[in-house]
Amino acid sequence: MTDRACEGEDELIAALQRYVEERFAQEDDVLVALRQALKDHGFPEIQVSSSTGRLLQLLVAASGGRRVLEVGTLGGYSAIWMGRALARNGRLTSLELDPRHAELARDFVARAGLSESVDVRVGDARELLPRLGPDGSFDVVFLDADKEGYVGYVQEALRLLRPGGLLLADNAFWSGRVLEEAEDDATRGIQAFNEHLARESRLAGTVLPVGDGLAVAVKVG
Ligand code: SAH
Ligand code: MG
Fold first, then answer.
1. Given a cut of 50, is residue 88 above it in pLDDT?
2. What radius of gyration, in Å, describes the C-alpha atoms of the chain?
3. Distance between CA atoms of residues 143 and 154, nearest Å
4. Which residue, 60, 128, 158, 180, has fewest beta-carbon neighbours within 10 Å?
5. Cα(171) to centroid(ligand 1), Å
6. Is the shortest distance between the CB of 159 and ligand 1 below 6 Å?
7. pTM
8. What is the pLDDT of residues 167-208, one digit of tens each?
9. Ligand nearest to the CA of 53
């Protein structure tokens, strides 16, 4: 393909993404204000895309949305998208290492009216995950914290998910770096995660080209 044809294709894909976003993934005032607050605090603006937020929301709804676990809260952007799809009495637990991120997230979870159903816990997911349970009690586990930890988090997710539960993970494309030879631990972490997902017999998965690549897998058997 010539470069020009490729450029045209990029523009077409971008236009189609906008078309979908405008119709299906509109942010409300709370989510817009949260993105601004991340900027104002000088926090990393690495929340999921609005299209990914919408997809997470639908997957939570499809799963029944009774118990959801997120690893990596940041300011609560993805947590709010998912929290809005919880069943009545459903709960989202979200784990966050940085207490300043968690504080902002709790503030915005409250602004979204979700304080009763969304629980932000501060700590290292490596320590918090093994304490969660009971086994097989979660409908959805969404990974979006340190990429070096992803493969280890899968083991905990497999323990925590019910049969038919969903394992989701953001950044499966890692801005295209998955295609290159890894020069850092985060890229190696994502590559190892994708290979693991492809091979793990207890998970039937794939990567959807939404946002930075959303890995989606069902716990089988
Ligand atoms: N899911 C969020 C974005 C998360 S960004 C959203 O889309 O809105 C990744 C977050 O993971 C950061 O806030 C970072 O502090 C947190 N994090 C990194 N390592 C972690 C760990 N070991 N345990 C828990 N959280 C971690
Ligand atoms: Mg991410």
1. yes
2. 17
3. 9
4. 180
5. 12
6. no
7. 0.97
8. 999 999 999 999 999 999 999 999 999 999 999 999 999 999
9. 1
